[in-house]
Amino acid sequence: MPVVIKRIMFFVFLLLVWQGIVLLGIWPESMIPSPFSVVNELYLGFKDMTLVYDITASFRHLFIGLFLAILIGTGLGVLLAKVKTADETLGTMILALQSVPSIVWVPLAIIWFGFGETSIIFVVVIGGTFVMTMNIRTGVKNVSPIYLKAAKTMGSKGLDLFFKVVIPAAVPHAVTGVRLAWAFSWRALMAAELLSTGPGLGYTLSYASDFNNMSLVIGIIMIIGVIGSIVDQLVFHRIENKVLRRWGLEEAA
Amino acid sequence: MDLKIDALSKQFENKPNPPLLVLDNINLTIKAGEFVSLLGPSGCGKSTLLSMVAGLQKPSSGSVYLGEEEIRKPGPDRGVVFQESALFPWMNVRENVMFPIRKKMTKKEQLSVADKYLQMVQLSKFPEHYPHELSGGMQQRVSIARVLAMNPELLLMDEPFGALDEQTRSILQDEIEKIWLDTKKTVIFVTHSIREAIKLSDRIIIMGARPGTIISDFNVNLGRPRLQADMAKLEEKVMAVLKSEIDKVMQEELSYAGSH
């Protein structure tokens, strides 16, 4: 049986179980709404464009934040890979910061930047930067010595060696870095938006919760999950596989 | 230009143990146009010697001269083919071959040089392919084309066919022989295969291990292409010289293993 069919059957089964629980009537609709009312709520949201507006806003925060995270992360990563002292000092700090959950930065961001979009973007940047840094650092540090030797015997050195050999050789790590940075940023984004004054998916989620609109809460959680997995699977995994294959690091998975 | 290796020694730090002497007082002159094989058991320092000729490592004492010039760093007069493919995976075959000449000539000249050498290694049909799409043998052909494109005086080959299967290996040996006859470059060829050394070289230098020294240096006076029957006799002779060396290495390794 093809995977797609299996998956579709699984989700149909899930919907049936869900509807079955609703029909049993153990819990009130305000706690467990039916799938139909969730779909209806999503339909209304897309029809009056509020959800479209939220999704656009969330993506705007994400892209600005992720772009900055990739930029800063690449710079820091190269610095750590090339300057030993920086690696021994700043590197340790970044490693520690990497293990701090992004939501921890939200209160700090609110004090510095208020409840608006700047705060959200700040948290997104923090969320993505460190993982990008560590991946670029690994990539630049672990360039296969054979490439360096070969390039040197062919007259490449200094900046030329760095830009023509080290950087391209580090691309697979960079791609993994971007994928992880996206995943971290996406989670950070939702955390930050939940506590913001909007707009954004996270904001509307907490808004819906405040007004006891359980259908919308579940609907938005679904949107977040679907967007997350689509971007991860369709965009990043494909790019990553393609790059890994070409760089000879992994057979087609 | 002749290559002159003068009283060259190399030792590696091996803390906390005393430094490891890898090459001990190597003296060697290789004439321009000669095909010379460095043959020896693993650990005899033949690859280290080659890498110092390439300028990738520095001697601990002594020096290497190409013509009048002392070798201190890598240079375009010496091209290296490594055992594992050192092709850049992010470039296609043609771009790889053009890498060493990309700053030396116009784009048009680069393309024609790349075409010429890809043809020489019989890969003119694959310029747009990426290394991962090629077999090991084809990758080594590209490596050879890339080195030739640089037009070096000296071709340094570090067990270039060591990772290939027997058949591919034999085909590539024929081709490198042909290329050498066509281009008349000086070749230093590192190998641990006696047959390969005899099949290809004008001259074979046998090295012994721990520390690496030259234990035998002789010319191969057989017509080309070499016939199996002619080669067999010489092979036995070389084997006899090498056997005591290999025994020595084995013994040491066993006693090392025993003491740990």
UniProtKB/TrEMBL annotation, chain A:
List locations, semicolon-separated.
Cell membrane
Q: Which residues cross the membrane?
A: 7-27, 59-81, 93-114, 120-140, 161-184, 214-236
What domain of life does the UniProt record list for this protein's source? Bacteria
Q: Where in this chain does the record put each ABC transmembrane type-1 domain?
A: 55-235
SUPFAM superfamilies documented for this protein: MetI-like
What GO terms describe the biological role, i.e. biological process, of this protein?
A: transmembrane transport
Q: Which UniProt keywords apply?
A: Cell membrane, Membrane, Transmembrane, Transmembrane helix, Transport
Descriptive protein name = Sulfate ABC transporter permease
UniProtKB/TrEMBL annotation, chain B:
Q: Which organism is it from?
A: Lentibacillus populi
List keywords of the entry alphabetically: ATP-binding, Nucleotide-binding, Translocase, Transport
- SUPFAM superfamilies, alphabetized: P-loop containing nucleoside triphosphate hydrolases
- ABC transporter domain: from which residue to which, for each copy? 3-234
What the entry lists under Gene3D superfamilies is as follows: P-loop containing nucleotide triphosphate hydrolases (3.40.50.300)
Extract one GO molecular function annotation from the record. Answer: ATP hydrolysis activity
The UniProt record lists the keyword Nucleotide-binding:
yes
InterPro entries this protein is in? AAA+_ATPase (IPR003593), ABC_transporter-like_ATP-bd (IPR003439), ABC_transporter-like_CS (IPR017871), ABC_transporter_ATP-bind (IPR050166), P-loop_NTPase (IPR027417)
- Write down the Pfam families for this protein, in alphabetical order: ABC_tran (PF00005)
Q: Does the keyword Nucleotide-binding apply?
A: yes
Query: Can you name this protein?
Result: Nitrate/sulfonate/bicarbonate ABC transporter ATP-binding protein
